[in-house]
Specification:
Chains A, B: Residues 1-70 form the HTH merR-type domain. Chains A, B: It comes from Streptomyces gelaticus. Chains A, B: Keywords: DNA-binding, Repressor, Transcription, Transcription regulation. The structure is a homodimer. Chain A is mainly alpha-helical. Chain A has a domain at 3-56. In chain A, 65% of the residues lie in helices and 3% in strands. A two-stranded antiparallel sheet of chain A has the order 1-2. The longest helix of chain A is centred in the last third of the chain and has 37 residues, at 172-208. At the A-B interface, helix 3, helix 5, helix 7, helix 8 and helix 9 of A face helix 3, helix 5, helix 7, helix 8 and helix 9 of B. Chain B binds a DNA duplex through helix 2.
DNA sequence: GATTATGGATAGCGGCACTTTCCGCTGTCC
DNA sequence: GGACAGCGGAAAGTGCCGCTATCCATAATC
Protein backbone atom coordinates (compact mmCIF):
# COMPACT_ATOMS: atom_id res chain seq x y z
CA UNK A 1 0.00 0.00 0.00
CA UNK A 2 1.30 3.46 -0.85
CA UNK A 3 0.73 6.60 1.13
CA UNK A 4 -2.25 7.70 -0.92
CA UNK A 5 -4.17 4.54 -0.19
CA UNK A 6 -3.24 4.70 3.47
CA UNK A 7 -4.61 8.23 3.48
CA UNK A 8 -7.85 7.16 1.79
CA UNK A 9 -8.39 4.25 4.13
CA UNK A 10 -7.70 6.14 7.30
CA UNK A 11 -9.17 9.48 6.34
CA UNK A 12 -5.96 11.24 7.37
CA UNK A 13 -4.51 13.64 4.76
CA UNK A 14 -1.21 12.66 3.18
CA UNK A 15 0.74 15.66 4.56
CA UNK A 16 -0.52 14.84 8.03
CA UNK A 17 0.69 11.26 7.70
CA UNK A 18 4.10 12.56 6.66
CA UNK A 19 4.01 14.86 9.64
CA UNK A 20 3.23 11.99 12.03
CA UNK A 21 6.13 10.02 10.60
CA UNK A 22 8.43 12.98 11.13
CA UNK A 23 7.22 13.31 14.70
CA UNK A 24 7.90 9.67 15.37
CA UNK A 25 4.28 8.75 15.97
CA UNK A 26 4.12 6.46 12.97
CA UNK A 27 6.95 4.27 11.65
CA UNK A 28 8.13 5.15 8.16
CA UNK A 29 7.04 2.95 5.30
CA UNK A 30 9.26 0.23 3.91
CA UNK A 31 11.35 1.83 1.16
CA UNK A 32 11.14 -0.03 -2.14
CA UNK A 33 13.11 2.59 -4.06
CA UNK A 34 14.67 5.95 -3.17
CA UNK A 35 11.35 7.69 -3.25
CA UNK A 36 8.80 4.98 -2.91
CA UNK A 37 7.67 3.23 0.24
CA UNK A 38 5.01 0.72 1.14
CA UNK A 39 2.74 0.75 4.16
CA UNK A 40 0.78 -2.12 5.65
CA UNK A 41 -2.28 -2.65 7.80
CA UNK A 42 -0.15 -2.08 10.89
CA UNK A 43 0.36 1.50 9.78
CA UNK A 44 -3.34 1.86 9.20
CA UNK A 45 -4.17 0.51 12.62
CA UNK A 46 -1.64 2.75 14.27
CA UNK A 47 -3.03 5.74 12.43
CA UNK A 48 -6.55 4.99 13.63
CA UNK A 49 -5.28 4.63 17.17
CA UNK A 50 -3.56 8.00 16.97
CA UNK A 51 -6.71 9.68 15.72
CA UNK A 52 -8.85 8.04 18.38
CA UNK A 53 -6.55 9.14 21.18
CA UNK A 54 -6.26 12.60 19.66
CA UNK A 55 -9.87 13.34 18.69
CA UNK A 56 -11.88 11.42 21.23
CA UNK A 57 -9.39 10.99 24.03
CA UNK A 58 -8.14 14.55 23.79
CA UNK A 59 -4.49 13.60 24.31
CA UNK A 60 -1.79 15.82 22.88
CA UNK A 61 0.46 14.51 20.14
CA UNK A 62 3.36 14.59 22.58
CA UNK A 63 1.44 12.44 25.06
CA UNK A 64 0.40 10.06 22.30
CA UNK A 65 4.01 9.78 21.22
CA UNK A 66 5.11 8.81 24.71
CA UNK A 67 2.34 6.28 25.04
CA UNK A 68 3.05 4.71 21.66
CA UNK A 69 6.75 4.46 22.30
CA UNK A 70 6.04 2.83 25.65
CA UNK A 71 3.62 0.40 24.01
CA UNK A 72 6.21 -0.57 21.45
CA UNK A 73 9.12 -1.02 23.79
CA UNK A 74 8.97 -4.62 25.00
CA UNK A 75 11.46 -3.84 27.76
CA UNK A 76 9.01 -1.38 29.24
CA UNK A 77 7.04 -3.05 32.05
CA UNK A 78 3.31 -2.91 31.46
CA UNK A 79 2.65 -0.80 34.49
CA UNK A 80 5.10 1.79 33.20
CA UNK A 81 3.07 2.13 30.05
CA UNK A 82 -0.05 2.59 32.09
CA UNK A 83 1.69 5.12 34.25
CA UNK A 84 2.57 7.10 31.15
CA UNK A 85 -0.98 6.85 29.83
CA UNK A 86 -2.46 7.84 33.17
CA UNK A 87 -0.02 10.67 33.69
CA UNK A 88 -0.70 12.12 30.28
CA UNK A 89 -4.45 11.81 30.48
CA UNK A 90 -4.65 14.87 32.65
CA UNK A 91 -2.47 17.80 31.67
CA UNK A 92 0.29 18.57 34.18
CA UNK A 93 -1.32 21.11 36.46
CA UNK A 94 1.07 22.03 39.23
CA UNK A 95 -0.32 25.09 40.85
CA UNK A 96 0.87 26.26 44.23
CA UNK A 97 0.88 23.41 46.78
CA UNK A 98 -0.67 25.17 49.77
CA UNK A 99 -2.56 23.67 52.66
CA UNK A 100 -5.75 23.15 50.64
CA UNK A 101 -3.98 20.62 48.47
CA UNK A 102 -2.53 18.92 51.53
CA UNK A 103 -6.01 18.58 52.99
CA UNK A 104 -7.35 17.20 49.75
CA UNK A 105 -4.54 14.66 49.58
CA UNK A 106 -5.41 13.58 53.08
CA UNK A 107 -9.03 13.13 52.07
CA UNK A 108 -8.01 11.03 49.11
CA UNK A 109 -5.96 8.80 51.40
CA UNK A 110 -8.93 8.49 53.75
CA UNK A 111 -11.22 7.60 50.89
CA UNK A 112 -8.88 4.86 49.76
CA UNK A 113 -8.75 3.45 53.26
CA UNK A 114 -12.48 3.74 53.74
CA UNK A 115 -13.10 1.76 50.59
CA UNK A 116 -10.21 -0.59 51.11
CA UNK A 117 -8.72 0.29 47.77
CA UNK A 118 -5.19 -0.83 47.21
CA UNK A 119 -3.89 2.14 45.28
CA UNK A 120 -1.23 4.72 45.87
CA UNK A 121 -2.85 7.84 47.21
CA UNK A 122 -0.04 9.99 45.91
CA UNK A 123 0.28 8.59 42.41
CA UNK A 124 -0.95 10.54 39.39
CA UNK A 125 -4.58 9.49 39.76
CA UNK A 126 -4.71 10.31 43.46
CA UNK A 127 -3.01 13.57 42.79
CA UNK A 128 -5.43 14.59 40.09
CA UNK A 129 -8.34 13.64 42.32
CA UNK A 130 -6.91 15.89 45.01
CA UNK A 131 -6.62 18.67 42.46
CA UNK A 132 -10.24 18.27 41.45
CA UNK A 133 -11.27 18.50 45.09
CA UNK A 134 -9.26 21.67 45.54
CA UNK A 135 -10.76 23.16 42.37
CA UNK A 136 -14.29 22.36 43.53
CA UNK A 137 -13.70 24.02 46.88
CA UNK A 138 -12.03 27.01 45.31
CA UNK A 139 -14.93 27.44 42.93
CA UNK A 140 -17.29 27.50 45.90
CA UNK A 141 -18.72 24.05 45.27
CA UNK A 142 -17.11 22.14 48.07
CA UNK A 143 -20.43 20.46 48.70
CA UNK A 144 -19.93 18.44 45.57
CA UNK A 145 -17.10 16.65 47.32
CA UNK A 146 -19.72 14.89 49.45
CA UNK A 147 -20.52 12.81 46.40
CA UNK A 148 -17.04 11.28 46.42
CA UNK A 149 -18.21 8.02 47.95
CA UNK A 150 -21.11 7.68 45.55
CA UNK A 151 -18.75 8.25 42.67
CA UNK A 152 -16.23 5.81 44.06
CA UNK A 153 -18.90 3.16 44.47
CA UNK A 154 -19.82 3.59 40.81
CA UNK A 155 -16.19 3.50 39.71
CA UNK A 156 -15.67 0.04 41.19
CA UNK A 157 -17.83 -1.97 38.79
CA UNK A 158 -16.53 0.11 35.88
CA UNK A 159 -12.95 -0.74 36.80
CA UNK A 160 -13.87 -4.40 37.16
CA UNK A 161 -15.46 -4.37 33.72
CA UNK A 162 -12.36 -2.73 32.26
CA UNK A 163 -10.08 -5.27 33.87
CA UNK A 164 -12.26 -8.06 32.64
CA UNK A 165 -12.07 -6.77 29.09
CA UNK A 166 -8.34 -6.32 29.30
CA UNK A 167 -7.87 -9.74 30.88
CA UNK A 168 -9.12 -11.42 27.74
CA UNK A 169 -6.09 -10.19 25.81
CA UNK A 170 -3.06 -12.38 25.51
CA UNK A 171 -0.39 -10.73 23.40
CA UNK A 172 1.47 -8.03 25.28
CA UNK A 173 1.06 -5.32 22.67
CA UNK A 174 -2.64 -6.05 22.38
CA UNK A 175 -3.01 -5.98 26.11
CA UNK A 176 -1.23 -2.73 26.62
CA UNK A 177 -3.06 -1.10 23.78
CA UNK A 178 -6.35 -2.27 25.23
CA UNK A 179 -5.56 -0.71 28.53
CA UNK A 180 -4.63 2.57 26.95
CA UNK A 181 -7.70 2.63 24.74
CA UNK A 182 -9.89 1.55 27.61
CA UNK A 183 -8.52 4.17 29.94
CA UNK A 184 -8.69 7.00 27.47
CA UNK A 185 -11.75 6.24 25.37
CA UNK A 186 -13.56 4.61 28.28
CA UNK A 187 -13.50 7.94 30.01
CA UNK A 188 -15.15 9.60 27.05
CA UNK A 189 -17.68 6.78 26.89
CA UNK A 190 -18.61 7.09 30.52
CA UNK A 191 -18.84 10.85 30.25
CA UNK A 192 -21.36 10.62 27.46
CA UNK A 193 -23.35 7.98 29.32
CA UNK A 194 -23.36 10.09 32.43
CA UNK A 195 -24.83 13.01 30.56
CA UNK A 196 -27.47 10.75 29.07
CA UNK A 197 -28.24 9.43 32.54
CA UNK A 198 -28.57 13.01 33.76
CA UNK A 199 -31.23 13.65 31.19
CA UNK A 200 -33.08 10.52 32.24
CA UNK A 201 -32.82 11.13 35.96
CA UNK A 202 -33.96 14.68 35.44
CA UNK A 203 -36.90 13.65 33.30
CA UNK A 204 -37.81 11.11 35.93
CA UNK A 205 -37.71 13.55 38.80
CA UNK A 206 -39.03 16.75 37.31
CA UNK A 207 -41.02 15.65 34.37
CA UNK A 208 -42.71 12.37 34.72
CA UNK A 209 -44.34 12.14 38.11
CA UNK A 210 -46.45 15.21 37.65
CA UNK A 211 -45.69 17.49 40.61
CA UNK A 212 -42.19 18.93 40.61
CA UNK A 213 -39.44 17.20 42.51
CA UNK A 214 -37.04 18.28 45.26
CA UNK A 215 -35.77 21.33 43.50
CA UNK A 216 -39.15 22.83 42.79
CA UNK A 217 -39.66 25.19 39.89
CA UNK A 218 -36.12 26.40 39.85
CA UNK A 219 -34.92 23.09 38.58
CA UNK A 220 -37.53 22.69 35.91
CA UNK A 221 -35.94 21.88 32.66
CA UNK A 222 -32.85 20.02 33.80
CA UNK A 223 -33.40 17.86 30.77
CA UNK A 224 -32.55 17.86 27.15
CA UNK A 225 -28.92 16.92 27.39
CA UNK A 226 -29.57 13.61 25.72
CA UNK B 1 -10.84 45.58 46.32
CA UNK B 2 -8.50 46.70 43.55
CA UNK B 3 -7.18 44.51 40.80
CA UNK B 4 -3.95 43.70 42.60
CA UNK B 5 -5.74 42.22 45.56
CA UNK B 6 -8.11 40.31 43.31
CA UNK B 7 -5.04 38.90 41.61
CA UNK B 8 -3.43 37.91 44.91
CA UNK B 9 -6.56 36.26 46.22
CA UNK B 10 -7.33 34.32 43.09
CA UNK B 11 -3.80 33.55 42.00
CA UNK B 12 -4.55 34.88 38.52
CA UNK B 13 -2.03 37.43 37.17
CA UNK B 14 -3.26 40.98 36.70
CA UNK B 15 -2.80 41.03 32.91
CA UNK B 16 -4.77 37.81 32.67
CA UNK B 17 -7.62 39.34 34.64
CA UNK B 18 -7.61 42.29 32.28
CA UNK B 19 -7.62 39.86 29.39
CA UNK B 20 -10.65 38.00 30.78
CA UNK B 21 -12.48 41.29 31.18
CA UNK B 22 -11.69 42.20 27.58
CA UNK B 23 -12.96 38.82 26.46
CA UNK B 24 -16.20 39.28 28.34
CA UNK B 25 -15.61 36.41 30.73
CA UNK B 26 -15.46 38.66 33.75
CA UNK B 27 -17.47 41.84 34.31
CA UNK B 28 -15.40 45.00 34.56
CA UNK B 29 -14.86 46.48 37.98
CA UNK B 30 -16.94 49.37 39.28
CA UNK B 31 -15.16 52.54 38.22
CA UNK B 32 -14.48 54.91 41.10
CA UNK B 33 -12.45 57.33 39.00
CA UNK B 34 -11.36 57.44 35.36
CA UNK B 35 -8.61 54.94 35.97
CA UNK B 36 -9.53 53.22 39.16
CA UNK B 37 -12.04 50.43 39.65
CA UNK B 38 -13.15 48.23 42.51
CA UNK B 39 -13.87 44.52 42.43
CA UNK B 40 -15.89 42.46 44.88
CA UNK B 41 -16.15 38.86 46.02
CA UNK B 42 -18.39 38.15 43.07
CA UNK B 43 -15.49 38.84 40.77
CA UNK B 44 -13.29 36.57 42.83
CA UNK B 45 -15.82 33.78 42.71
CA UNK B 46 -16.27 34.13 39.00
CA UNK B 47 -12.55 34.08 38.49
CA UNK B 48 -12.22 30.84 40.46
CA UNK B 49 -15.01 29.33 38.43
CA UNK B 50 -13.28 30.27 35.20
CA UNK B 51 -10.02 28.72 36.33
CA UNK B 52 -11.74 25.54 37.51
CA UNK B 53 -13.55 25.08 34.20
CA UNK B 54 -10.39 25.93 32.29
CA UNK B 55 -7.74 23.98 34.21
CA UNK B 56 -9.64 21.01 35.55
CA UNK B 57 -12.60 20.87 33.21
CA UNK B 58 -10.49 21.49 30.14
CA UNK B 59 -13.03 23.82 28.53
CA UNK B 60 -11.84 26.48 26.10
CA UNK B 61 -12.23 30.12 27.01
CA UNK B 62 -14.79 30.44 24.23
CA UNK B 63 -16.85 27.61 25.71
CA UNK B 64 -16.55 29.09 29.18
CA UNK B 65 -17.72 32.42 27.81
CA UNK B 66 -20.84 30.86 26.34
CA UNK B 67 -21.59 28.98 29.52
CA UNK B 68 -21.12 32.03 31.71
CA UNK B 69 -23.26 34.21 29.53
CA UNK B 70 -25.97 31.55 29.59
CA UNK B 71 -25.72 31.28 33.36
CA UNK B 72 -26.12 35.02 33.74
CA UNK B 73 -29.01 35.49 31.38
CA UNK B 74 -32.15 34.95 33.45
CA UNK B 75 -34.23 34.70 30.30
CA UNK B 76 -32.29 31.64 29.27
CA UNK B 77 -34.18 28.50 30.30
CA UNK B 78 -32.12 26.26 32.55
CA UNK B 79 -32.02 23.42 30.10
CA UNK B 80 -30.55 25.74 27.48
CA UNK B 81 -27.66 26.49 29.77
CA UNK B 82 -27.12 22.80 30.29
CA UNK B 83 -27.31 22.23 26.60
CA UNK B 84 -24.55 24.77 26.09
CA UNK B 85 -22.44 23.24 28.84
CA UNK B 86 -22.96 19.72 27.52
CA UNK B 87 -22.32 20.73 23.93
CA UNK B 88 -19.09 22.47 24.80
CA UNK B 89 -17.79 19.73 27.04
CA UNK B 90 -16.77 17.71 24.05
CA UNK B 91 -15.10 19.61 21.22
CA UNK B 92 -17.16 19.71 18.02
CA UNK B 93 -15.98 16.63 16.17
CA UNK B 94 -17.93 16.22 12.96
CA UNK B 95 -16.08 13.78 10.87
CA UNK B 96 -17.65 12.14 7.86
CA UNK B 97 -21.09 10.69 8.67
CA UNK B 98 -20.85 7.31 6.99
CA UNK B 99 -22.70 4.12 7.82
CA UNK B 100 -20.54 3.34 10.85
CA UNK B 101 -21.89 6.41 12.60
CA UNK B 102 -25.42 5.47 11.63
CA UNK B 103 -24.96 2.04 13.16
CA UNK B 104 -23.53 3.54 16.32
CA UNK B 105 -26.47 5.93 16.59
CA UNK B 106 -28.80 3.00 16.29
CA UNK B 107 -26.96 1.21 19.07
CA UNK B 108 -27.23 4.23 21.29
CA UNK B 109 -30.98 4.33 20.70
CA UNK B 110 -31.21 0.64 21.52
CA UNK B 111 -29.24 1.13 24.70
CA UNK B 112 -31.56 3.89 25.81
CA UNK B 113 -34.57 1.70 25.17
CA UNK B 114 -33.00 -1.30 26.86
CA UNK B 115 -32.34 0.69 29.98
CA UNK B 116 -35.56 2.63 29.78
CA UNK B 117 -33.72 5.94 29.82
CA UNK B 118 -35.74 8.94 28.87
CA UNK B 119 -33.15 10.86 26.93
CA UNK B 120 -32.84 12.02 23.37
CA UNK B 121 -30.69 9.57 21.50
CA UNK B 122 -29.68 12.23 18.99
CA UNK B 123 -28.85 15.06 21.36
CA UNK B 124 -25.25 16.09 22.00
CA UNK B 125 -24.61 13.38 24.61
CA UNK B 126 -26.03 10.61 22.46
CA UNK B 127 -24.11 11.90 19.52
CA UNK B 128 -20.82 11.97 21.35
CA UNK B 129 -21.45 8.47 22.66
CA UNK B 130 -22.00 7.33 19.09
CA UNK B 131 -18.74 8.98 18.11
CA UNK B 132 -16.87 7.19 20.85
CA UNK B 133 -18.30 3.88 19.66
CA UNK B 134 -17.18 4.61 16.12
CA UNK B 135 -13.72 5.61 17.32
CA UNK B 136 -13.37 2.40 19.34
CA UNK B 137 -14.32 0.28 16.35
CA UNK B 138 -12.06 2.19 14.03
CA UNK B 139 -9.17 1.76 16.43
CA UNK B 140 -9.75 -1.98 16.38
CA UNK B 141 -11.21 -2.15 19.86
CA UNK B 142 -14.84 -2.73 19.06
CA UNK B 143 -14.91 -5.33 21.81
CA UNK B 144 -14.80 -2.55 24.34
CA UNK B 145 -18.29 -1.56 23.23
CA UNK B 146 -19.57 -4.67 24.99
CA UNK B 147 -18.98 -2.87 28.24
CA UNK B 148 -21.60 -0.25 27.36
CA UNK B 149 -24.22 -1.76 29.61
CA UNK B 150 -21.85 -2.08 32.54
CA UNK B 151 -20.86 1.53 32.10
CA UNK B 152 -24.48 2.62 31.78
CA UNK B 153 -25.40 0.78 34.96
CA UNK B 154 -22.64 2.63 36.79
CA UNK B 155 -23.69 5.97 35.31
CA UNK B 156 -27.18 5.71 36.79
CA UNK B 157 -26.28 6.11 40.46
CA UNK B 158 -23.78 8.82 39.56
CA UNK B 159 -26.47 10.78 37.76
CA UNK B 160 -28.84 10.32 40.69
CA UNK B 161 -26.19 11.62 43.07
CA UNK B 162 -25.57 14.62 40.81
CA UNK B 163 -29.26 15.40 40.62
CA UNK B 164 -29.58 15.06 44.35
CA UNK B 165 -26.76 17.53 44.90
CA UNK B 166 -28.18 19.95 42.39
CA UNK B 167 -31.68 19.57 43.82
CA UNK B 168 -30.57 21.09 47.09
CA UNK B 169 -29.96 24.44 45.40
CA UNK B 170 -32.66 27.06 45.39
CA UNK B 171 -31.47 30.22 43.68
CA UNK B 172 -31.42 29.90 39.91
CA UNK B 173 -27.89 31.10 39.41
CA UNK B 174 -26.63 28.77 42.12
CA UNK B 175 -28.50 25.89 40.62
CA UNK B 176 -27.28 26.41 37.11
CA UNK B 177 -23.74 26.92 38.25
CA UNK B 178 -23.95 23.73 40.28
CA UNK B 179 -25.03 21.79 37.27
CA UNK B 180 -22.23 23.17 35.15
CA UNK B 181 -19.62 22.54 37.80
CA UNK B 182 -21.04 19.12 38.51
CA UNK B 183 -21.09 18.15 34.86
CA UNK B 184 -17.64 19.41 34.08
CA UNK B 185 -15.67 18.82 37.26
CA UNK B 186 -17.66 15.71 38.13
CA UNK B 187 -16.31 14.14 34.98
CA UNK B 188 -12.76 14.85 36.05
CA UNK B 189 -13.54 13.53 39.51
CA UNK B 190 -14.95 10.29 38.20
CA UNK B 191 -12.06 9.87 35.82
CA UNK B 192 -9.55 10.07 38.62
CA UNK B 193 -11.58 7.69 40.77
CA UNK B 194 -11.83 5.26 37.90
CA UNK B 195 -8.07 5.20 37.51
CA UNK B 196 -7.67 4.65 41.23
CA UNK B 197 -10.19 1.83 41.06
CA UNK B 198 -8.22 0.33 38.18
CA UNK B 199 -5.15 0.19 40.35
CA UNK B 200 -7.12 -1.49 43.11
CA UNK B 201 -8.89 -3.99 40.89
CA UNK B 202 -5.59 -4.83 39.27
CA UNK B 203 -3.81 -5.29 42.56
CA UNK B 204 -6.66 -7.48 43.71
CA UNK B 205 -6.57 -9.71 40.64
CA UNK B 206 -2.89 -9.93 39.79
CA UNK B 207 -1.13 -9.10 42.96
CA UNK B 208 -2.87 -10.19 46.06
CA UNK B 209 -4.10 -13.72 45.60
CA UNK B 210 -0.72 -15.18 44.84
CA UNK B 211 -1.00 -16.95 41.50
CA UNK B 212 -1.61 -14.68 38.53
CA UNK B 213 -5.12 -13.96 37.38
CA UNK B 214 -6.97 -14.34 34.07
CA UNK B 215 -4.44 -12.52 31.97
CA UNK B 216 -1.50 -14.54 33.14
CA UNK B 217 1.97 -13.12 33.06
CA UNK B 218 1.26 -10.72 30.28
CA UNK B 219 -0.95 -8.65 32.52
CA UNK B 220 1.40 -8.57 35.45
CA UNK B 221 1.86 -5.08 36.61
CA UNK B 222 -1.42 -3.53 35.68
CA UNK B 223 -1.00 -1.53 38.84
CA UNK B 224 0.64 1.61 39.95
CA UNK B 225 -1.74 4.09 38.48
CA UNK B 226 -2.89 5.21 41.87
C1' DG C 1 5.52 11.15 -23.17
C1' DA C 2 2.33 13.67 -20.34
C1' DT C 3 0.22 13.48 -15.99
C1' DT C 4 -0.08 12.28 -11.44
C1' DA C 5 1.76 10.44 -7.13
C1' DT C 6 5.59 9.95 -3.97
C1' DG C 7 9.33 10.69 -0.39
C1' DG C 8 11.74 14.12 1.77
C1' DA C 9 12.75 18.73 3.47
C1' DT C 10 11.63 23.47 4.81
C1' DA C 11 8.67 27.11 5.70
C1' DG C 12 4.37 28.98 6.84
C1' DC C 13 -0.30 29.24 9.04
C1' DG C 14 -4.24 29.76 12.24
C1' DG C 15 -5.95 29.24 16.75
C1' DC C 16 -5.48 29.79 21.48
C1' DA C 17 -4.23 31.56 25.97
C1' DC C 18 -1.98 34.56 27.39
C1' DT C 19 2.11 38.41 28.10
C1' DT C 20 4.45 42.57 27.10
C1' DT C 21 4.64 47.18 26.40
C1' DC C 22 3.10 51.56 26.53
C1' DC C 23 0.36 55.46 28.05
C1' DG C 24 -1.28 58.92 31.19
C1' DC C 25 -3.41 59.01 35.65
C1' DT C 26 -3.94 57.89 40.87
C1' DG C 27 -3.23 56.48 45.55
C1' DT C 28 0.08 56.24 49.06
C1' DC C 29 3.95 56.88 51.84
C1' DC C 30 7.49 59.88 53.64
C1' DG D 1 4.74 67.87 47.83
C1' DG D 2 7.52 64.71 45.64
C1' DA D 3 8.80 60.00 44.56
C1' DC D 4 6.98 55.82 43.13
C1' DA D 5 4.40 51.71 42.82
C1' DG D 6 -0.18 50.58 41.17
C1' DC D 7 -4.01 51.37 37.99
C1' DG D 8 -7.22 51.13 33.66
C1' DG D 9 -7.09 50.71 28.90
C1' DA D 10 -5.38 49.63 24.34
C1' DA D 11 -2.30 47.39 21.06
C1' DA D 12 1.11 44.46 19.72
C1' DG D 13 3.81 40.43 20.57
C1' DT D 14 4.74 35.50 22.22
C1' DG D 15 4.94 30.49 22.43
C1' DC D 16 2.96 26.33 21.62
C1' DC D 17 0.34 23.17 18.95
C1' DG D 18 -1.44 20.66 15.09
C1' DC D 19 -1.19 20.84 10.97
C1' DT D 20 -0.73 22.80 5.73
C1' DA D 21 1.73 24.56 1.72
C1' DT D 22 5.47 24.62 -1.24
C1' DC D 23 9.18 22.77 -3.56
C1' DC D 24 12.16 19.28 -5.57
C1' DA D 25 13.63 15.20 -8.01
C1' DT D 26 12.07 10.76 -8.92
C1' DA D 27 8.64 6.97 -9.86
C1' DA D 28 4.30 5.06 -11.33
C1' DT D 29 0.49 5.24 -14.45
C1' DC D 30 -2.19 6.17 -18.51
Amino acid sequence: MRIGELSNRSGVPVPTIKFYVREGLLPAGQLTSPNQASYDSGHERRLRLIRALLDVGGLSLAAIGEVLRAIEDPAQPVHEVLGVAAKRLTPPQRDEPGPELEDAREEVAELLERRGWRAEAHGPAGESLAEVIVALRRAGHGGFVELLDDYAAAAEPVARADLDYVGRRVAREDLVESVVVGTVLGEAMFGALRRLAHADASARVYDGDGAGGPGGDAAEGYVGQG
